[in-house]
Amino acid sequence: MKSNRWAWSAAGLVAGFAGLATSYFVAMAMTIRSSPVVAIAELVIRETPGTMVEQAIQVLGRHDKTFLVTVILVVTALLFAYAGRLAARAWWAPAIVFGVLAAIGFTAVGLQHDTGITDLLPVAVGFVTWLICLSLLTEPLRRAARGGAAPGGDPATDPDSDTAAEPARVAPTSAGSTRRGFLVRSAVITAAALAVSAFGRVVGQGRRQVEETRRLLKLSGVSPPVVPTHARIGLDGISSWITSAGDFYRIDTSIVAPAIQPVDWKLRIHGMVDREVELTYQDLLDRRLTEDWITLNCVSNPVGGPLIGNAWWSGVRLSELLHEAGVHPDADAVLQTSDTGWTCGTPLSALTDGRDAMLAVAMNGEPLPIDHGFPVRTIVPGLYGYVSACKWVVDMEVTQFSRFSAYWTERGWSEKGPVKLSSRIDVPRSGDDVTAGRVRVGGVAWAQHIGIKAVQVAVDGDDWQPADVSHPPTDDSWVQWATTVTLDAGDHTLRVRATDKDGLVQTGVQRGVLPNGSTGWHTIDVTATT
Ligand SMILES: Nc1nc2c(c(=O)[nH]1)N[C@H]1C(S)=C(S)[C@@H](COP(=O)(O)O)O[C@H]1N2
Ligand SMILES: [Mo]
């Protein structure tokens, strides 16, 4: 059928643009500076010889970029259509065309400044969308092709069992119903792609504007992070004592982080208080800011896991604000609510006992990154994030634990989440080969707001031996530790345990993360060779 060729091309085209739409949306939602198409355009600009670019600019004037993007889109469209036609011959044939396109997209995005692995997500999502849409669209065409070849049979029987072995049971698809099926699917996918693009545009614009505001903000009370002298131990490969915002783990229930303009932000402190307090972003900046090194970790971090980071936080002390509100003596909790609707319950005592519990406006001397709670989040030393570190916080209700349950408490996690004393080996890595003899071992240990007194390491089943521990000026942050062990040639097990400043020794009893944090000694295996 001649018209069918057009249908296959159209299928390729629609599926291709659906893929572009989702990749664009993901790029916008993640505030990746540009979508894959724009990345390719920029790559072309960079790789084209300067004189050619100048000529192009002379001919095309200010429309040079639009022209380039249009050309790229037209070429891509032709390739999409071609890929659709290839699908008529073999299902895998178009995958090659799109694989090449995705590879170009990957390369273009990857060659941009400061790209991380997550920046490649839009291309990956686009690729998957395209595969799914293409198979949805070509399925009626395929059925028609097969149906035409094997007439007869009962359309009421199972149309999915049209195998070569049972030609009689093939559903004879009429040209009309095929057309209808195909058109309906094309229309639905096109509409969805347009909606996704439009949504991506809105989301992207909001985020971009907030990102711009954030970039221009100058927070006068915020000082840059200066790593204190005794906070570090020199050993290559152990976690940086200060975690950069880019390396800081991110955990939240939002697919797209909310984009909140500081001028639109407000926090209400209410509930069991004498006077409600309402604060704007400017109100916070007008106050004296407290600053502290605080290590934040996630209750879901397994022993030895990566969900922990240490940053220099600046913000307004919550004890001051709660004091101004006049907290009733029978209150024992603060129910925090995020702009996203996420909630957590924090013990009132942790917010008023003098520790640096704060409404943070800055992380490592910069306004909070959007993904880490811009414009304002809570940070409480000594508590897991899920009961304290509310990002995009907009509401605080002084109350009692008996009166509510928060997001994670409803899902089986403990009402209270004090951080558990723990430690981690960063070097060597488990599975490493090391040179037999004296081997340097090191990592981090934490007991926020209590502090680490000592760290010990044991080789195989032997005695615990002490490690050197760094001395940061606060007990709210982790410490680095390092030591030297002697390993004979062969396989060895290394474990670590810490002791906090209250004298508690880290337990070796292994517990999972549910309901209130993992315990056990981080243990690694290495092979020493001569
Ligand atoms: N609004 C909001 N805040 C949140 C969460 C969330 O899902 N939504 N997750 C919490 C959890 S479980 C942790 S461990 C920390 C993580 O903070 P980070 O992403 O800045 O590292 O944020 C906390 N604050
Ligand atoms: Mo968490």
How is this structure best described in words?
Strands 2-1-10-5-6 form a five-stranded mixed sheet. The protein has 530 residues and is of the alpha+beta class. The longest helix is centred in the middle third of the chain and has 42 residues, at 175-216. Mean pLDDT is 87; it is low at 149-171. Helices cover 34% and strands 22% of the residues. Helix 4 runs antiparallel to helix 5, helix 5 (93-110) runs antiparallel to helix 6 (121-149) and helix 6 runs antiparallel to helix 7 (175-216). The chain contains ten helices and 19 strands. The protein folds into three domains: 2-204, no CATH class; 262-411, Sulfite Oxidase, Chain A, domain 2; 422-529, Sandwich (Immunoglobulin-like), CATH 2.60.40.650. It starts with a helix and ends with a strand. It has helices at 2-29, 36-47, 50-60, 64-87, 93-110, 121-149, 175-216, 281-285, 318-325, 348-352, and strands spanning 266-271, 277-280, 290-297, 308-317, 333-338, 343-347, 358-363, 366-367, 377-379, 393-399, 422-427, 433-435, 437-446, 452-459, 464-466, 468-469, 479-487, 490-500, 523-529.
Question: Gist?
Answer:
This protein is α+β, with helices and mostly antiparallel strands and 530 residues long. It contains ten helices and 19 strands.
What quaternary form is this? single chain
Task: Return Rg in Å.
Answer: 29 Å
Report the order of strands and helices. Answer: HHHHHHHEEHEEHEEHEEEEEEEEEEEEE
How many discrete domains? 3
The helix count comes to 10
Number of separate strands? 19
User: Helical amount among residues, as a percent range?
Assistant: 25-40%
Shape: globular
By secondary-structure content and strand pairing, the structural class works out as alpha+beta
Low confidence ranges: 149-171
Major β-sheet profile? 5 strands, mixed
